[in-house]
Specification:
With 254 residues, the chain is an alpha/beta fold. It has one domain: TIM Barrel (Alpha-Beta Barrel). The chain is 38% helix and 19% strand. The chain contains eight helices and ten strands. The strands form two sheets. A seven-stranded parallel barrel has the order 1-2-3-4-5-6-9, surrounded by six helices. Helix 1 links the parallel strand 1 and strand 2. Helix 4 packs across helix 5, helix 5 crosses helix 6 and helix 7 crosses helix 8. The model has no long low-confidence stretch (mean pLDDT 94).
Length: 254
């Protein structure tokens, strides 16, 4: 069983007068923050504020890069080329880097968001484009991707440190992919169910899929969804569950 695990959360997704989540309450409870870079959420003021908060709490700062889909919150798939994946990743990385540098902090990792995350999990060409952008920007960055998918494989091929990401509040299919949100039971809303899956991931590196089969899932990092209204309460609960089995929380090492 692991003795440490990364707990990451998607944050900084508010923009303008619109507010998403409770970043101030969540940040002290996690080890890595994936900061929206303006394409699916976030704006200049929110990025700056989120970087400041993450630095104050000693939380690793990551670029949460997305398809350019503010209206759809980055969850609508778009047909893009590998070159376009490279360019949008590099563009958003540069934006977050500017705010991090101004605050005396650094960007530590990159994690795609929403539709781009799922597309890169199964499309080797898109995954390679993202991995190339991360490498060309800073080969010391950690690349996050769905455990066992094309994205961490592309990162390894580029010589990057990768974090295989798992989800305690999402149902899995027998092939290790996440169940579509359109499917009943795709999101585990009950804390007991999420806690049980969290322990299975940490202890066994495996979960029970929707069809009842047992699926091996490499787990370097657990994702907490910051857009849920009870994100801070869930984070506290997950930390307490991990503490009961002697697992501490820390970001992955590059």
């Amino acid at each position: 069983m692991r003795t440490t695990i990364d707990l990451n959360c998607d944050l900084g997704e508010s923009y303008g007068a619109w507010r998403m989540g409770d970043d101030e309450a969540v940040l002290p409870l996690i080890s890595s923050a994936n900061v929206a870079c303006g394409f699916h959420g976030g704006d200049a003021a929110v990025m700056r504020r989120t970087v400041k908060l993450a630095r104050a709490h000693g939380v690793a700062i990551g670029a949460h890069v997305s398809l350019q889909d503010l209206q759809g919150f980055g969850r609508r798939e778009m047909r893009i080329s590998a070159d376009e994946a490279y360019e949008l990743t590099l563009y958003q990385l540069g934006a977050l880097h500017a705010f991090a540098r101004a605050e005396g902090a650094r960007v530590a990792h990159v994690k795609p968001h929403g539709a781009l995350y799922n597309m890169a999990a199964r499309d080797a060409a898109l995954a390679a484009g993202i991995a190339a952008a991360v490498h060309d920007f800073d080969p010391a960055l950690v690349l996050y991707g769905l455990a066992g998918s094309a994205l961490p494989a592309a990162g390894v091929a580029r010589g990057l440190v990768v974090a295989h990401e798992a989800f305690c509040d999402r149902a899995y299919e027998s092939d290790g992919s996440l169940a579509s949100r359109s499917q009943p039971g795709a999101v585990l809303d009950e804390r007991a169910a999420a806690a049980a899956q969290l322990l299975a991931l940490v202890r066994d590196q495996a979960v029970n899929a929707r069809d009842g089969s047992r699926v091996a899932i490499r787990c370097d990092s657990i994702c907490l969804h910051g857009d849920r209204p009870d994100a801070a309460d869930v984070a506290r609960h997950l930390r307490a569950v991990l503490a009961t089995v002697g697992v501490s929380v820390a970001p992955p090492r590059a």
